[in-house]
Design brief:
The protein is α/β, with parallel strands linked by helices and 315 residues long. The protein is built from eight helices and 16 strands. Helix content is 27%, strand content 19%. The strands form four sheets. The chain has an eight-stranded parallel β-barrel with strand order 3-4-7-8-9-10-15-16, surrounded by six helices. It has a four-stranded antiparallel sheet with strand order 5-6-14-11, with no helix packed on it. The protein binds flavin mononucleotide.
Length: 315
């Protein structure tokens, strides 16, 4: 032992941060949320994606799509409202151009959304076996044209058909990202589990509206937008808690996570992995800080494995 300090052998082992995303082994439980990190390449030089658990790419449709016209983002108290909508490069360009541009060893979750159930299934089929893609996340917050525009994730029967079709179209791991714009998240969680989802992601942004009173107009061209950021965290925690009580499949918790402690809260209420979204806009390194904060929490509390926190909320 060196004078005045503990020898290397006396230092406690760093905690085990490894996590399991519905059967996929991850370095740690922190991912970037869909739509807030593009296709991963946009963050080059700002965040090394190999240091976090992985990232969820912007939701993909069969064809490239343009989004809503501006203004489509506005700041709100403790968060933001966005109405980017379906803008993306399309599934083929994602496979041919975006995936090969990523460094080796990045865990990519491809997110899928469409306006019709059959098209969701087709996007899933095209992604089967895409290099680096470890799982698919089905974004159920897209308006379902045949139901008059309500979100797929807002009607139990429509959600069931969607998950069934996606399940039938691929053998890949399937996370279903639930819409928070529902009365009973537990019911939706059960529906997704019953149709073969391997895991759940929740929550997506919550429907909101901001008004520019000087112009007496909606702040966003689309009128309605999705609220995200710390403003929605207590709602997201409540929904993860309720979903975790309702199903056995693993949950990826999302909603206003900005620190290691926020991530801990999601793990305690039953999530086994988490995603960081809006926080990356103010600080592109936010997900790394969440990972470091998680590690510091485990060290502070003498907890050996991050998995030991999952569902550990005391009453
Ligand atoms: C600008 C923006 C774009 C988004 N695009 C998508 C998307 O394409 N697909 C999706 O499933 N979620 C999308 N989301 C929702 C986020 O993935 C996440 O579920 C939500 O923002 C809540 O997490 P947060 O509070 O950490 O941002 C988007 C969010 C923002 C802010």
């Amino acid at each position: 032992m060196t004078a005045g300090g503990a020898g290397a052998s006396d230092r406690p082992e760093p905690p085990d941060l490894s996590a399991d995303l519905c059967g996929v082994a991850l370095r740690n439980p922190v991912l970037l949320a869909s739509g807030t990190c593009g296709y991963g390449t946009e963050l080059a030089g700002l965040l090394d994606l190999r240091e976090i658990g992985g990232f969820v790419a912007k939701s993909l449709t069969l064809e490239p799509r343009a989004g809503n016209p501006p203004p489509r983002i506005t700041e709100t108290p403790a968060g933001m409202l966005n109405a980017i909508s379906l803008e993306n490069v399309g599934v083929e360009a994602f496979i041919d151009e975006k995936l090969p541009a990523l460094p080796e060893g990045v865990a990519v979750v491809a997110s899928v959304f469409e306006t019709e159930i059959e098209r969701y299934g087709e996007v899933c089929r095209r992604l089967e076996g895409a290099p680096g893609v470890v799982a698919l996340e089905i974004n159920a917050s897209c308006p379902h044209v045949k139901s008059g525009g309500i979100e797929f994730g807002q009607d139990p029967a429509v959600l069931a058909s969607l998950v069934r079709a996606c399940r039938a179209s691929t053998g890949m791991k399937l996370l279903v990202k639930l819409s928070p714009n529902v009365t009973s998240i537990a019911e939706m969680a059960r529906v997704a589990e019953g149709e073969g989802a391997d895991g759940l992601s929740l929550i997506n942004a919550m429907q909101g509206l901001a008004v520019d009173v000087e112009r007496r107009r909606p702040a966003l061209s689309n009128v309605l937008g999705g609220l995200s950021g710390p403003a929605i965290r207590p709602v997201a925690l409540r929904m993860v808690y309720q979903a975790a009580q309702a199903v056995k499949i693993p949950i990826c918790g999302i909603g206003g996570i900005t620190s290691g402690e926020d991530a801990v809260a999601f793990l305690l209420v039953g999530a086994s992995t988490v995603q960081v979204g809006t926080a990356s806009y103010a600080n592109p390194g936010a997900a790394l800080e969440v990972r470091d904060g998680l590690q510091a929490y485990l060290e502070r509390h003498g907890i050996a494995r991050v998995r030991d926190l999952v569902g550990g909320l005391l009453s």
